[in-house]
Amino acid sequence: MKIIHLCDAIKSLYLKSSIPVLIFLFTAIPLFPENSYLAMAYQFWMDGDYGKAESLYIKAARDKAGEYDSRLSLAALYRAQGNYRSAIKQYTILMSKQPAIDQKVIKDLYIPLAESYYYSHRLKEAGEIFQKILEVSPDLPGALFGLGRVLFQGDNIEKAELVFKNAVSADSDFPGNYIYLARIAELKNDQKKAIDYFLKAQKKDKYQVELLYYIGVMYQALGQYEKAFRQFHRLSNIDAGNSYVRAKIVEIQPHLTRPEEEIITAKILDTFKTVNPIIDPGKIPMIRVGLNTTPGGKFIPLDTISFISSGDFSITDGASIIFSGQSDYLYSIILRNGNPVITGVPENTPEKLPDKFYIEQNRAGKGSLIIKKIDYARGFAWGGIEDRQYRGRIEVSALKNGFKLINEVNLEEYLYSVVPSEMMISFPGEALKAQAVIARSYALYRMQYIHPHEKDGFDLSDSQHCQVYKGASNEWKKSSLAVDETRGQVLYYNGKVSHPLYHSNCGGHTQSSKDLKGWGTAGYLTGVFDGPDDLNFPASLPELESWIKSSPKAYCNITASGRGPEFRWFRLVPADLLQEKIHREKDIGNIRDILVIKRNPAGYVHSVKITGTRGSITIEKEHRIRRLLGIGPLRSNLFWVDTKYNEKGFPDEFTIYGGGWGHGVGLCQSGSAGMAKRGFSYKEILEHYYLGTVTGELY
Prior knowledge:
Radius of gyration: 28 Å
Largest sheet: 7 strands, mixed
Oligomer: single chain
Structural class: alpha+beta
Number of helices: 24
Shape: globular
């Protein structure tokens, strides 16, 4: 981070100084480093001031000693704006001075030059450069993928198919090759093979939800209407307002021979997981969790509550018993003439219930309920409907349009589910302990200080708006042990329980909360490099681009191949699909370009401007940027966009390379696993991600 601080200091002087002072500043070699122009230019670029950055890079390029790095940065600056013609000019100048082709020159010059030709629809030149690269490095995945795209765009389908198959052999984890093989199969009217390739690409990263649209189209062409409907139904849950998706559903519905609810099935849970009450609950606080909530934390009323109890139970009004039920029967509670009624009793006689009631086990602390068809992660690629098992007491409120459910359970038993719901159970024990401490702290902080759902009558939601809580059906011995071994422990900052935000994968560097609007300025939520001290974070524009597009070393790069989609991901977003979504926000006409106009020191995008033929739209909020640049949300805001233009100068497609999963603030879960594998304890892990905090016992 030292280079960032230096950039800020120099930039400040640049803005405040007079011309004579500036002349002195940049001729005072002993006082300032030779790359001061580069450092300043990089900071201006991060802040979205492309004009000042360009000017400084041009000045820096006049110095022969720094010309190479300066022109590389200038070319990357142009490419970031979609100005490929100017980028090509800079690369060409450097190539004329670098006759020898080695791996560094290929990485620095040849690959970005070939890509610049391709994205600007100069296919002949792009193909020639990619061919030169492959003469030196025949199995270079990026060059194979690039040449394949050039051949595909030039309608040389047979050769393109061969190249993409070679690219798969070179890098079987990269989804882009499978996408193009699917497109080739589609051109050959081989829908079955196209589906197979699309599914392979989607399996590599389920966040590529745009592929579901094309899979649905292929199934529709084959007359497999139920399979097609499942794809478009899933897309409608992810992006309910998408007109293309709605139109496809309307086309397919007349061909369905079964009711839609039979086609879209829930994950069924028909056996109870054995759960035991926590030993000596003592001073453990109780928590009220809103069930069946959206990712934004809003509850979704259930039309019907269908449930099975593992033991005898009672329905009470909080004081007296209204109804007594038995184990292993399927009961349903519905609204009849606006009044809640329970059906499915052994005598088959409906029983009237009050507008608010409680379902609780007769043996306190023992037994649980399976509640059918709980909605989860609506709007995300992995969303769906499933049965879930719950400990504790269920509070039910009858509304005009259904029922609201709240699960009352003690905090430690709540954590038995939250820890494995939020973190992979395969992670090392020390990482799970760290997760237990911060999940406990997070819940307590929100309950004590924020009260996010006070108006709704519960403390936390069961979705990622608070913490994902899947109930007792998602409890596991390994994660429960981590909860038990850290029982009552919380993370303190300045003597108070902290609000330790966390996310799946930071991509290599966490963000500072102060860099995000409305996220606060807590000192312990300061961004950190997610790796050992002997590794460096990018300090220039080309380095950052390469860092995002490659698989660098970091604590959170934990897969064997380094290609895990949580750490590095890839999306191909067709311009027409993106344009449909942007149009719902604002009619800007046909999209001209996407421009990142601000990044923070960790490389995360903080502001994006999308320009069209009739106007533009600027997006600044973290979650809106992620949600707007595709049918489904991007995994994170750490990304780089390349724009493929057609012959008329309009975008055909946006290639998005990205890193990380989640907002990037606080603990990186994958990074905690990487640290644990290197021998760090859970307390050391917490100290790394939350500066100035200490772990202590609350109860």
